Amino acid sequence: MRALPLRRTALAAQALSLPLRRSRQSVCPHTWSRFQATVAASGPAVTATNRAEATLKRFWKSVGIEPREDALTVTLDKRPLKTPSGNPLLIPSTKPLAATLVAAEWENQETLLKQHSLPMTSLVSRAIDAFQDETTRKEVRAQLLRYLGTDTICFHSSEPEALVALQQKHWMPILEWAQSTFNIELSTATDSFLVSNHPLDTLKKLDEVLTQFNAWEMAAMERATYSSKSFLIGLALTLRHITAEEASLASHVEVNSQIQKWGEVEDSHDVDYHDIRRQLASAACLLSTS
């Protein structure tokens, strides 16, 4: 199997705040090894992910990527990784970047497991465990559409000028794109916590858009919406109208306005921004087919 260019993989790992290392002892270009890891003393769980969550310790020595027919699987000590529900964690061969990032997440776990540093693994697992089921897909579509009723970018302010400028720069293009692309009407409000309900025809058309999403797109849409607190930002990212960086800036408009006026609170504003950026980047990387 063709190896991913190291530069592309390193850049993607950087976007997710994942330091990528490769051992000189590795023979396969898709295998990482580390021999100082602590072996968990407790018995095996149903899956490697469940075992790791139960023990919070690294029990594997090597991480690899192997082909499985038309898919890719990440292996721990040559054993294929499974989702928390016990399904094989199989990633389409058209998504080598996602597979590489999942492998990088597990390789970069040290002695103790850091669950928050597995954004790609949790996202891939969500796509496999939840979005193969039509009942779950229907429930999530309804939940996401409810987000549209309180969508961040539908509530505007007329002051201060810095906030208005950021709204115009980051929110208006997304609103205009959504209305023109799907031929819908969106209700917005200015200086108010209340906004008129979006037309039923708008909700129907957007539900039809979500119905056409595959499992990977649904998982990315769900994460992007909840991370950005905006259905429309999530939709624009999932359909690749905007990048993860643009989505991060759009979701951080109000905070950035406050930072411009009062300054940044160290270890608060910056941490929140990079956490949102990491979550949105994981959704974008899941959609990548290069």
List its salient traits.
290 residues, alpha+beta, 7 strands, disordered N terminus, 51% helix
Could you characterize what this model shows?
- This protein is an alpha+beta fold.
- 51% of the residues lie in helices and 9% in strands.
- The chain is built from 13 helices and seven strands.
- It has helices at residues 6-15, 48-55, 96-107, 119-130, 134-148, 161-170, 172-182, 200-211, 215-228, 231-238, 244-251, 253-262, 269-287; strands spanning 31-33, 62-68, 71-76, 79-80, 90-92, 155-156, 189-190.
- The strands form two sheets. Strands 1, 2, 3, 4 and 5 form a five-stranded antiparallel sheet that branches.
- A hairpin with a 2-residue loop joins strand 2 and strand 3.
- Helix 4 packs across helix 13.
- The longest helix has 19 residues, at 269-287.
- The protein is globular and about 60 Å long.
In short:
This protein has helices at 6-15, 48-55, 96-107, 119-130, 134-148, 161-170, 172-182, 200-211, 215-228, 231-238, 244-251, 253-262, 269-287; strands at 31-33, 62-68, 71-76, 79-80, 90-92, 155-156, 189-190.
Helical residues, percent: 40-55%
Q: Please tell me the overall pLDDT.
A: 82
Shape: globular
Order of helices and strands: HEHEEEEHHHEHHEHHHHHH
Percent range for β-strand residues: 5-15%
Rg, rounded, reads: 21 Å
The number of helical segments is: 13
Structural class: alpha+beta
Sheet with the most strands, sense and barrel status: 5 strands, antiparallel
Unreliable sequence segments:
1-15, 17-45
Q: What oligomeric state do the depicted chains represent?
A: single chain
Total beta-strand segments: 7
